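Batch 3, record 17
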Amino acid sequence: MGKALQNEAMNIDVQTMIENKRKKKSVSGKLEKLIPAFLFLCAAVSVLTTAGILFTLLRESITFFSTTSIVDFYTGTQWSPWTGHFGVLPLITGTLLITLIAAIVAIPLGLMSAIFLSEYASDRTRKIIKPTLEVLAGIPTVVYGFFALTFVTPLLKNIVPGLGIFNALSAGIVVGIMIIPMIASLSEDAMNSVPNSLREGALALGATRLEVAMKVVLPAAFSGIVASIVLAVSRAIGETMIVVIAAGASPTLTFDPTRSIQTLTAFIVQGATGDTTFGSTIYYSIYAVGATLFVFTLLMNMLSQYISRKFKEEY
Amino acid sequence: MSGIDEKNNLKRIRGRVILNNVLKGLFFVSTTIGLIFLALLLYRILTQGIGYLNSDFITSFPAPYPEEAGIFAGLIGSIMMIAIVAPVAITLGVGTAIFLEEYAYKNRWTKFIQINIQNLAGVPSIVYGLLGLTFFVYMLRLGYTLLAGGLTMALLVLPVIVVAAQEAIRSVPSDIKEASYGMGASKWQTIRRVILPAAIPGILTGTILALSRAIGETAPLIIVGAATALYTLPDSLLSKYTVMPIQIFNWTGRPQEEWQFVAAAGILVLLIVLLFMNAVAVFIRNKFQKRY
Amino acid sequence: MNTLLKQKKVDNKTSVKPDIKENNQTKSEAAMDKNVFEVNNLNLWYGNDQALYEINMNVPQNKVTAIIGPSGCGKSTYLKTLNRMVEMVPIVKTSGSIQYNGEDIFSDKHSVEGLRTKVGMVFQKPNPFPKSIYDNIAYGPRIHGVKKKAVLDQIVEKSLRDAAIWDEVKDRLDENAFGLSGGQQQRVCIARALAIEPDVILMDEPTSALDPISTLKVEELVQELKKKYSIIIVTHNMQQAARISDKTAFFLNGELIEFADTDHLFSNPTDKRTEDYISGRFG
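Prediction for the assembled complex:
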């Protein structure tokens, strides 16, 4: 009763206004019902992208394998599409060689950076070094390729005799540098999430920082570290521009890092930019190579996810 | 009494401490290697490129002689490409994030979409190029056009934007959502008036980082047919186009040393654009630092 | 696609506990006064865990009704059921009926949004939006379609006055509400709830995060507000319930043990468990 009086005095009744608006608003209300459907369609695009990738790679690869034997493809040791030799092993070893060199560079450097940042550096140092290191991850790969070709290779020539202008060593090292921030940053996150109480427990027993890092923190953060390495390696497998520019285009079945090689990714670029015509065998071979690459990286990514999910540390 | 040999133990402790200090030094040096590499790279490119970096370089089309070559077509092409990538990828990415965070029931399907997005983020960029080649260039008959390139790049950066937007939306505290629902606001009203405004700094920061990745990407655009030399600007979505990284790649491949300087100058322009975008991202992050 | 969308279900499970608690006070009150809420045989589950058992309770109009009980007794859950905020947790199921002014709140005829415009809520922790004070208050009217600046101005001033905070904030309406003290924030939140002139205001331990002086201000405010609104307040503080409420309900382990006039309940509880609780023997 008191309320009615008050409302008259103010001469605005919000609830009445709301009631009136509600009756009028039914149209926009109906539009609102469409929003979830629209958002669902947005989410569907990413699923369709995956489906599209699978469909594309599968369809063109199947066409390719209808003229070239899949067994010859995966066991052949000669890759020279323009003379009709489709043995993918040289491309795979080329990719593995680059990945191996990159891993040799990036895993120790990345891990040691992570240990330094997480266990030794002061907060201030970490706040400066970590983002700076991450800048490395933001530099376009074409820039790395340029740097590998015009700086790293000439530099290495002074040390390694007989190094070609295009070689796996230089490209591999630079790919390794590129993935350092990935390993360092993600491993540091994993080590950082190890609770301080564990460290204090060990320090109180007289352990040195090093012993704490090696015997307490590394084991506790192990799965996160492994996941970061797997992810970084997968990134190295899929890296394209650095190897296209610095490793050359000579598919050779070799593990000699001083020689020019060709990776899976580099062939895709070569195949797509040459005089390849739509529908030719070479055109389809690009997709067979792409499918091989996709399977490699997908397996690595799933492995990384599996590791970080399965061995999620519980503190 | 305690079984610890005092004298020997002291010795051992000293050894352990020395080992600790030696390895600490090693770890520090390892950390600096990445930084030294970065410094070398920037220094080298700066000294190589600065001589060719002038206003003519920025406003000129490609030319047969190094002194006359310019990055104008690539710069404008990159900007036009971002003008396609940004609206497509932001709409799809933020839409997906809202769906997953606010509408989707946490069941197997949602988990499937989530894992799928994670995996997409790990697909090599060149595979996106193959998707774009088959789907946009040939199946939709877009040809080697700006639109085909832009859509390919939009799909490439989509997972990054989804993940950033999801994190931003998730970090909006649930008590202000409850406040909104408690006043009789509908789900969409709450999203539009409360959740999105609070999440927008995070979304923007992530988006800018994703777009700077799109600006630096080369490989997929080679596959979907960006032109290496272009003497006109694109005048429609269905024009031929080039972008900065493609031009740089092209210059890098030429044997004469002068072209290296041209490439370095191109890299400088590219890095300046990226630096600018990252500065904007940092500015946004600091300006809208979380207040709850 | 439907499988992907959250679905909120109200199941009509058959009641688990048939012993309905009759309460003499409740019955006689119901006969005399008008009730805003009539709750009958309310059961509630979070998944398979039952949180509320056979609640029967009539909430009188223009009174302050306090709900007390130890932590985890279901008092907050019960409060949030009254404006269906409890359904924010997707696995919630309920049975029984809640009538608001004679209409079933779970019926499909009425929207949740409609119910919540009539039944406002103030939360445990002050939760202003990260917007200006003005925009906080204008939020409710705006989402319900009130757009005219002049009208909004009037609503904002009136709501802030009613929440006894106008004088403190009138010169800084454009400032972010986060800049206010906790007590001021909570009164802004009350003003925000008042802005759409609901009939009922649900308060979920509104002073638990506040200092004593701010608590006192909110308590005084509640006394003032009951002239115009029906107020249901959950509190962990028995003195507070005794000070400000007209009727008090005691919850224990998801059951309504006793519901009576506040004076009566505190001075002469009928149930042994109520007596134990108010004399501090558990909780």
